[in-house]
Amino acid sequence: MSFRSEAEESASAFAVAVAFAVAFAVVLAFALAVALAVALAVALAVASGVGPGFSPDTKDHHQCGL
Predict the structure, then answer these.
(1) 37 pLDDT band (50/70/90 cuts)?
(2) Would you kindly state where each structural domain of the chain is located, as residue ranges?
(3) Using CA atoms, how far apart are residues 17 and 44, in angstroms rounded to an integer?
């Protein structure tokens, strides 16, 4: 009788460990998806010229004397 309860307890602990592993994998996949989406958005912005200018001769209105 005690063998069955130990087996059930072991199975329950294994189920909890699997549940935590699945939850961790889901959170990790979500974080990776967010990071890739941000990287893609930045790459598209830079490629389309929407991002900040990196040219050293770019001047703002303070440098133009306005």
Answers:
(1) very high
(2) 1-66
(3) 40
